[in-house]
Amino acid sequence: MAGRRPAGLFVGLCTLDVIQLVDHVPGPDEKLTARDQVVTAGGPATGAAVAFGRLGGRPRLLTGLGSHPLALGVRADLDALGVRVTDLAAGRGQPPAVSSILVTEATGERAVASVNATGQRLRAPAGLAELVESCDIAEFDGHHMDLAVEVAHAARAAGRPTLLDGGSWKDGTERLLASTDVAVCSADFHPPGTASPAETLEFLRDHGVTWAAVTGGAAPIMWAGPGGGGAVDVPETRVVDTLGAGDVLHGALAHQLSGPGPLDGPAFAEALARAAEVASRACASFGTRAWLTAD
């Protein structure tokens, strides 16, 4: 339908991100004054949902936030960005996961500490089949693994494409691959027995993933699919902050892949290229929100 906004279902981590821009990462017992700060909702699936919405999609996030006052701020941030949140930990009184992030001004590199989803086990919501059928694509970041596996299985059964953000190999990832159509992984994603992007792509193919890619920062994105593969160049940009670039890439890729029509090699490479353009724009400003309003 002309003008229809695609719907995306994003499953995974949601955190409170406290981001500080610093001259350098402090050493033991060192105190320093940050040059700037940003406080936002974060997490890979959350960042992808925000990007998907910025590009015109209708994102829904399945995650665990809880009722702590800090969680209310996270929800307010996402509400303002048009991300609908289904909170599967609504009765939980503990604070949400807080990511403490230091971004080095001169390089854009970041240091991150977070408890992530440790200690949380989420159950799928009632009406999962209907929820999945209402979306055009489902994306997962590998956190809340049991939930991700259940939703991915339901998406596969409903004929909805599934996309994995492989930031790192996690316990249970092999179960998620069984219902994954597209996997785009970082260079830090090392399945058992692999030591290179080529071996990672082969591993993913052998575990049933049809389309796969491995990113490496500014290096070309290596991809593989039925009938072959290739490399997609990443646009050059003046890097200010690399935080969340992978999340933006996955949200933009989900938007690209949510349209109708079969996926082939040229279409996959083009989708990766367009997603990389969006992610590169996000790296040109500090924090994970400034790019949303940049020209």
From TrEMBL:
<keyword id="KW-0808">Transferase</keyword>
<dbReference type="InterPro" id="IPR002173">
    <property type="entry name" value="Carboh/pur_kinase_PfkB_CS"/>
</dbReference>
<keyword id="KW-0418">Kinase</keyword>
<dbReference type="InterPro" id="IPR011611">
    <property type="entry name" value="PfkB_dom"/>
</dbReference>
<dbReference type="Pfam" id="PF00294">
    <property type="entry name" value="PfkB"/>
</dbReference>
<feature type="domain" description="Carbohydrate kinase PfkB">
    <location>
        <begin position="10"/>
        <end position="290"/>
    </location>
</feature>
<dbReference type="GO" id="GO:0016301">
    <property type="term" value="F:kinase activity"/>
</dbReference>
<dbReference type="InterPro" id="IPR052562">
    <property type="entry name" value="Ketohexokinase-related"/>
</dbReference>
<dbReference type="InterPro" id="IPR029056">
    <property type="entry name" value="Ribokinase-like"/>
</dbReference>
<protein>
    <submittedName>
        <fullName>PfkB family carbohydrate kinase</fullName>
    </submittedName>
</protein>
